[in-house]
């Protein structure tokens, strides 16, 4: 796998989706080349509120149950919660709510 990069929402690349997440160096070229056309029900205020809790402990209640861990990433379509060293990528439609742990 190629080197990993961090995206922190800066305008370093117009082709990258907003959020804070890790990506490979291939992602900007893939996005530029393919210019994916898909729709996501982005809730900017909710995403922004989630980003305020980055690197903090959260309890995330999903339709399948509850997880507690550190919020280590938030993209336009999912959050990343790290629980005991394991990264969980949870799509937003599955999140009922989150709160400080």
TrEMBL record:
Pfam families, per database record: DUF2642
Alphabetized InterPro entries for the sequence: DUF2642
Protein name as it appears in the record: DUF2642 domain-containing protein
